[in-house]
Write a structure and sequence with these properties.
- This protein is globular.
- Helix 6 packs across helix 12 and helix 10 crosses helix 11.
- 38% of the residues lie in helices and 21% in strands.
- The strands form four sheets. The chain has a five-stranded mixed β-sheet with strand order 6-5-4-7-10, with helices on both faces. The protein has a five-stranded mixed β-sheet with strand order 13-12-11-14-15, with helices on one face. It has a three-stranded antiparallel β-sheet with strand order 1-3-2.
- By secondary structure, it is of the alpha/beta class.
- The chain folds into three domains: 72 residues, Orthogonal Bundle (Arc Repressor Mutant, subunit A); 128 residues, Nucleotidyltransferase, domain 5 (2-Layer Sandwich), CATH 3.30.420.40; 152 residues, ATPase, nucleotide binding domain (Nucleotidyltransferase, domain 5, 2-Layer Sandwich).
- The chain is built from twelve helices and 15 strands.
- Strand 14, helix 11 and strand 15 form a beta-alpha-beta unit.
- The structure holds zinc ion.
- Zinc ion binds next to loops.
């Protein structure tokens, strides 16, 4: 390891610390990362010159005895992030600052075009327009991040297939990077959500987390020791394909009896139709799943999910479960789920299951995590 590497590694460590803790004094930074005050001061001078950090003035409330204690923090406006979240129904293009503050957004339908490449061309065009309209040049960007459901080869920037969007491998990274002229990072949407949770959410305080997303499918991501666990085939955390019985319904993965075949939005609407004779209203307005009429049905679905979740977190020994996805956002649903979960584990703390603040339906800024991770890694 050469000196330049050591310097970059120290810088990366300091920036990660600031990202986790918020504003700190040079002295406290030195204490936290085990460097001398002099070397931290030198590093901060360099980072200030590059505009990567900013000084925030004195520590609030501190008496003016002795030397002033100036806080430094990551400069929120150092660069902007171009976030492209491709989801089954819509694609969200968002420009954020370094901390996820939303500067501009445009939304387009995730349409079945002639080819997926045609659709991605539309996405690039819309992103280019958004940058242009907001006077953001390429050099003001950290890069572009793209998230998509399904398996992703992150190293190659390739989606290996996104159910209901495209069925074959698509080289998203190359296509968008060629169109926009910026570096593009691609990742599965749930893994990116987990990375976002590590950088800006509960992951700052908890080492081991379980992320659970419900709607339209059911998926999860596992955070172990502050890292997203991939598994051998990039398939860790596929809670939707844990089995509830070998004679169950056929799943899109080719197996039978997967959790997803019981509790995906699709499966729920099928069962609502069986029970009420019609599920059109429910399909149009998913918040109706909070209805009295389907209460028993939904409780039964949540019971299956709760049991599976209980088994999963007992293997991993998670600190917390972070839930996201639109079914949990239906009025009252999360509280009901927490109560059902407690029937499987009455010893779990009151706040064991919490809603993600970052992954709510209004956010769609998961790609920011990919770009911040690139930025915070030392090269
Ligand atoms: Zn399956």
């Amino acid at each position: 390891m050469n000196l330049e590497n050591v310097k970059n590694r120290n810088q990366s460590e300091v920036l990660r610390l600031l990202n986790n803790n918020g504003p700190m004094s040079r002295k406290d930074i030195a204490g936290a990362v085990g460097l001398t005050a002099a070397s931290v001061t030198l590093m901060c001078t360099e980072l200030l010159e590059k505009n990567i950090i900013v000084e925030l003035g004195e520590v609030p409330g501190e008496k003016r005895a002795g030397r002033k204690k100036i806080l430094v923090d990551i400069n929120n406006d150092y660069k902007k992030a171009l976030c492209i979240a491709i989801e089954t129904d819509k694609t969200y293009i968002t420009i954020t600052d370094m901390k996820g503050g939303i500067k501009a957004r445009s939304v387009l339908e995730t349409e079945k075009k002639e080819t997926p490449e045609d659709f991605l061309k539309d996405v690039s065009d819309a992103a280019g327009r958004l940058l242009w309209d907001n006077d953001i040049s390429r050099d003001m960007l950290l890069g572009a991040g793209v998230t998509v459901p399904g398996k992703v080869d992150a190293k190659k920037g390739t989606s290996l297939g996104a159910y209901n969007i495209w069925e074959r491998p698509i080289e998203i990274g190359d296509i968008i990077s060629e169109d926009l002229g910026v570096e593009v990072t691609v990742e599965n949407n749930l893994k990116a959500a987990a990375q976002l949770e590590i950088l800006f959410g509960l992951g700052r305080k908890n080492k081991n987390l379980f992320l659970l997303k419900w709607g339209p499918g059911v998926g999860s991501a596992i955070i172990l020791d502050r890292k997203v666990y991939d598994g051998s085939n990039n398939a860790a955390g596929e809670i939707g394909h844990t089995t509830l019985g070998k004679d169950g319904r056929l799943c899109k993965c080719g197996r039978r009896g997967c959790l997803e075949t019981y509790i995906s939005t699709h499966a729920i609407l099928d069962d609502v139709a069986l029970m009420l004779g019609d599920s059109t209203m429910y399909k149009k307005d998913l918040s109706l799943l909070g209805d009295e009429k389907v209460r028993g049905l939904m409780d039964e679905k949540m019971d299956r999910l709760a049991q599976t979740l209980r088994n999963a977190v007992s293997l991993i020994d998670s600190d917390r479960v972070v839930v996201l996805g639109y079914i949990f956002e239906v009025d009252g649903m999360l509280d009901r789920f927490k109560n059902i979960y407690r029937t499987y584990d009455s010893t779990s703390p009151e706040d064991f299951i919490v809603a993600s603040e970052l992954g709510s339906k209004s956010a769609h800024i998961e790609p920011l995590a990919l770009l911040m991770n690139n930025f915070l890694s030392y090269r």
